[in-house]
TrEMBL record:
Protein family: Belongs to the class-I aminoacyl-tRNA synthetase family.
Name this polypeptide is given: Tryptophan--tRNA ligase
GO cellular component terms, semicolon-separated: cytosol
GO terms for MF: ATP binding; tryptophan-tRNA ligase activity
The keyword Transport belongs to this UniProt entry's keyword annotation: no
Catalytic activity: tRNA(Trp) + L-tryptophan + ATP = L-tryptophyl-tRNA(Trp) + AMP + diphosphate + H(+)
Keywords, ordered alphabetically: Aminoacyl-tRNA synthetase, ATP-binding, Ligase, Nucleotide-binding, Protein biosynthesis
Amino acid sequence: KEVVVSGIRPTGFLHLGNYFGAMRNYVRMQNDEKFNCYFFVANWHSLTTHPDTRELQSSVHRVIAENIACGLDPDKVALYIQSDVPEIAELYLYLNMLAYKGELEKTPTFKDKVRLQPDNVNAGLLTYPVLMAADILIHRAVKVPVGKDQEQHLEIARNYADRFNHRYGEVLPAPYAFNYGGELVKIMSLDGNGKMSKSENQMNTLYLADDADLIRKKIMKAKTDQGPAEPNSVKPDYIENLFTLMRLVSTEDTVAKFEADFNASSAGNVVIRYGDMKKQLAEDMAAFMKPISEKAADIQNNKELLNRIIRQGADKARASASATLKLIRSAIGMDYS
Ligand code: ATP
């Protein structure tokens, strides 16, 4: 079977970008005979940007609960917490010796973070892609279901696998980003600026836990314009984004109607009514989110269940991780006993 790995940082409530870019694929992959799946809560990664850990435990539980509410089955996959698998930290150490400072400094995500938190440019932030490579390579994964924002990190992970193999012998397969649709997904923020994310402006992010009123409020404020200048225009990013969200939660007929209205519109004859489209999208979105948020809240309150899931996940993940680490130590020549 092909090994699959992916993780989510416990930096807040999960949003539609996480769902659409990552979790939707997790659920499909767990039910696909071809795959052996490892999904984790990236709590070490969250320390690079969120050093205050007072909320961390409940966030970790929340991410697990939301993953299960979206359909992940802890009996079918390994669902674990990153810090429960110390083998990852050992591989991170080895990979750090193959990672170069200049290269890491050029990573766009690092440059973004430096702009966002100039007073806390810690080494963990710089070596984020190294830890991410360790997360993936520790299970010798080949497929990584992630959103478009992670594409570059996958390229870095492939470089490290390649360098390791070159220096110590073939141990690590090359991992690739994966989405069932082919193209990786990027859900934009509702104001049309950048990607939707957990820690950015909350009014521009649709969280799985949002109630119907809040969903309506956020979607009605989403960026639109006066409509296309001519029939069959290319949609601007922020309009395409609304259609993308609609394709996720509305019926095909609904999407087709608004697509047709858009294509028939021109400056002198605006058929598409974005107000109606957003109203419909808000209703369908609220109906989509309700069962997920209710189920997630139930699971989060069930500490016994959560503990069982966490223990079970850690056991599965450590079994796989320690097997890889054995191969790695032996390739490096660090198997002394
Ligand atoms: P933060 O704001 O704390 O950086 P985040 O929302 O960017 O968090 P991550 O935990 O970094 O989320 O990412 C979890 C998964 O969700 C990754 O696979 C990532 O590619 C995917 N993802 C996050 N945001 C989006 C988005 N807007 N569109 C598509 N996929 C996304």
